[in-house]
Amino acid sequence: MSGDPILDEWYPVALVSQLGPLGRDTRLLGQPIRVYWGTDHQPQVSDANGRALPVTCRYGHVWTCPGTPSRPLFDIPEADQPGRRLVDVGVVRVKCSPLRAVENFLDIAHFPFVHTDILGAEPHTEVGRYDVQIRDEVDEVWATKVQFYQPQAAKSAAGGITTEYMYRVPAPTVAVLYKTCPPRPGEWDVITLFVQPLEQDLCEVWPWMALFDDTTSLTDLIHFQQTIFVQDRSILENQLPRLLPLDPGMEIPTRADMTSIAYRRWLKRRGYSFGAQLVAA
Amino acid sequence: MILYDYILSPDCYKIRLLAALTGQRLTLQAVDYHPGGEHRSAAFRMLNPAGTIPVLQDGALILTESAAILTYVAAMSGPDWLGEDSPQMRGQVAQWLAFAHRLSASIGKARSHDMLQQPADINACRRAGVACLQELESALTEQRLMGFGYLAGARPTLADIACFPHAMLAPDGGISTDPYPAIRLWTRSLRALPGFIEMPGIHRLHELKPEPIGTAGQD
Amino acid sequence: MTAAWTPVALARDLPRLGVMPVCVDGIDVALWRSASGRLAAWADRCPHRGMRLSHGFVRGEALSCIYHGWSYGASGSCLRIPAHPDLEPPEAIRVPVHRATENNGVIWVALGDQDNTPPALTGLVPLRSVTVQARAEVIRSASGLAIGADGIARGHLASIAVAVLMQALPEGATVLHVLAEPADPAALIAASRAVEALRRAAESKGAA
């Protein structure tokens, strides 16, 4: 066991569907790695010394762990539910802390200003009370009963609706969003953000979705999600300090930021410091 | 009129923007450029052998160069945007339509390298991008000294639409736009035009809307 | 302690409802002008999540952050948090405010207390601000401009009398704020081109 809380996590490093015959040279936690097809026609990952790293292929992506996995890759049961479309959105590189990318994904209050007329619009800016817990039995952060008025909540939405959200952080660089599903009331659309930490202030973000939507073309679904994420990119590249401050003092949260507060507290408790700043500078 | 389109492409965006400003209806056909690489597919190359986007199809007409597409859309729905007031203005519009290719080849390449992992000599792209922005800044400064707010005169034309997206999105490729006050004022006035639409990476000018009064209720 | 005034922009480049990033003594500053024309220079960082305020927007007399729309009034204190429209923002939420003043078409900022006024530059019109990748002394020697008792470089560019204010940026870059004697557009354009030539000369000298 490496025992290092950073090394022992699973990280996304490639899309299975996009891994070409030449493989992919990339970085993970500041170190070079290589993702390639093995002789058994399964994706393999090796570090700079040629050491084979553990590999899991799930949710369209190749996952690896530079240490000794402390637990299996988190489960998203909806991924196996019949009738869902699984959407590989592709990678976007962002010059920011991987943790800032996750935290932004957990935030709704920015919708009217950054995703204007899609995920939010003035004057519908109010964030009501919602529930946040660190669920000790699974060691995950959960936010539930999050509601927000959205002009165009999904590609399949016609007109504005009040959308209900649940957020889940099953690993330090992964966020899962469960969202009201316009064509199928009672079910949740699943939208994830898988973040590959290249450096403390550089990451590659792989959004992925499991949706009930039989009418929208796959390309339109991909482009909708790319639109949303790239709208966030210029925000993420202009936050100071670049590393996520885990100690209070540098930034001022409000009630709307309860998920962020819980996420930072959870990271600190786990000793997860890659991309984080522990002492107020 | 069908536009083969990618939402993150500044060259596709300039066509959508002009269409929005002139009221031209477009049927958008999304191309899975990233991650799918659909523009390199055999089917797409039947439409455009160069495998580039945007592509505009109107009946039997197929156009694959963004300068040509802009010219066609303007001729169809907004001839004022062609900038044909004088021979000088026509020359300037042609100048900036050509210049826009340099922006795509420098700033555009740096952006798709930094954002979408497309291969590029990133330092060379950034150097060329900075040189382009310096030229644009100087040209806009000279226009201001003559009392003009836009690249080819006192009103916006295709020249501005062709150059605006890459100039605005340069920070996406690690090229700062902070040093260019004339570019800042020019992009701001374009963003304030009636009918202006954004693309991802270009935010709404929220100052154009008044602060909501009182509390935000549900409708 | 009094701090020096730093020239940061030509007033003409910051219209009402405008906001721009500038750098003073290595500190990032959001420079903005309200609807009534009031000038302000603030720390370029929203206290909420650290987003640069120079990416924000001005409505009336307030500057708002682009990220969550938190708005701040003249004193730098938070006026409104859109996520909680009924909440009176606590007094503790405020943006550090610097001194800013406008004098003869130039905007100056000081990071500390300041009693005196920046140097006067009467009889000149704004030409342009240009960022040069070279230090001030390299630019001075490339330009042949003379430094007066007030510390301002003066001389001629393309036969037009100019005054050049230099603003140091981190990593050895310098912004030149150039003012010129009133002249017709053609003469001013020639001077603008001479500024570009000076930039190229200083940058190649600095690189050599």
Number of helices of chain C: 2
Please tally the helical runs of chain A, counting DSSP H or I stretches of 4 or more residues.
4
Percentage beta strand of chain A: 35-45%
Summarize the biggest pleated sheet of chain A: 8 strands, antiparallel
Helix/sheet category of chain C? alpha+beta
The arrangement of helices and strands of chain A along the chain is EEEEEEEEEHHEEEEEEHEHE
Which outline of chain C best applies?
Answer: elongated
Query: What profile does the largest beta sheet of chain C have?
Result: 6 strands, antiparallel
* Oligomerization status of the protein chains: heterotrimer
Unreliable runs of chain A: none
The number of E-state strands of chain A comes to 17
Order of helices and strands of chain C: EEEEEEEEEEEHEEEEH
The Rg value of chain A, from CA coordinates, equals: 18 Å
CATH class of the largest domain in chain C: Mainly Beta
Distance between the termini of chain C: 39 Å
CATH superfamily of the largest domain in chain A: Naphthalene 1,2-dioxygenase Alpha Subunit, Chain A, domain 1
CATH superfamily of the largest domain in chain C: Rieske [2Fe-2S] iron-sulphur domain
Please describe the topology of this protein:
The complex is a heterotrimer of chains A (281), B (219) and C (208).
Chain A lengths: L10 E5 L8 E5 L2 E7 L5 E5 L4 E2 L1 E4 L2 E4 L20 E4 L3 E3 L3 H8 L5 H4 L16 E5 L4 E11 L10 E11 L2 E7 L7 E12 L2 E10 L6 H19 L7 E2 L12 H13 L5 E2 L4
Parallel strand pairs in A: 16-17
Antiparallel strand pairs in A: 1-7, 2-3, 3-4, 4-5, 6-7, 8-15, 9-15, 10-11, 11-12, 12-13, 13-14, 14-15
Chain B lengths: L1 E4 L4 H13 L4 E4 L11 H6 L7 E4 L2 E3 L2 H12 L9 H30 L5 H24 L12 H12 L11 H11 L28
Parallel strand pairs in B: 1-2
Antiparallel strand pairs in B: 1-3, 3-4
Chain C lengths: L5 E5 L8 E6 L2 E7 L5 E5 L13 E3 L2 E3 L6 E2 L5 E3 L16 E7 L2 E5 L14 E8 L3 H8 L2 E2 L5 E5 L2 E9 L5 E7 L4 H23 L1
Antiparallel strand pairs in C: 1-10, 2-3, 3-4, 4-9, 5-6, 6-7, 7-8, 9-10, 11-15, 12-13, 13-14, 14-15
Key descriptive features of the protein:
heterotrimer, A: 281 residues, alpha+beta, N-terminal domain of TfIIb, Naphthalene 1,2-dioxygenase Alpha Subunit, Chain A, domain 1, 2 domains, eight-stranded antiparallel β-sheet, 4 helices, B: Glutaredoxin, Glutathione S-transferase Yfyf (Class Pi), Chain A, domain 2, globular, disordered C terminus
